[in-house]
Amino acid sequence: MALCVCPNCGYQFKKGSNKVFVTFVIVFWIMIVAVSAVGYLFVVRPYNRENQARELLKKAYGKCISGDVTIDEKNLTLVIDSEDENDVDGYVDAVQILKTLGFSDSVNSEMENTTALMGKQEAESKDFKVSWSYHPDNGLDAYFEYKK
Length: 148
What we know:
The chain has 148 residues and is an alpha+beta fold. It folds into two domains: 13-48; 53-146. The chain contains three helices and seven strands. The longest helix has 46 residues, at 17-62.
């Protein structure tokens, strides 16, 4: 193998040995970037999404006017348990929660037009899902939760 000499310092090295070092450095940095990207996608990002969901659910809970709404200890679920068909506050809370959590107006309309014979209904937004039922004797019962 031919030796090359640096014209400035006189260091002798084998021709082509620098390519191995450069390749090593490039592969090393590609691995660092790949590990960082995987860490972000599978650890940091879901954690941030869940925290944002918690904050939205707490915000929605804070806007409720009735005593019919409860929030779980992890702040990832809201439950509306209305008293009967005359419990208007429970429905007002449902509308406020739907808006805060980013559900479309059509879900509000579906919820408003649900009858006892329709059974349990469901809908989803980007980060949340809701299921609800209605009966004149029990009012509106709705369950809002974060989609993991």
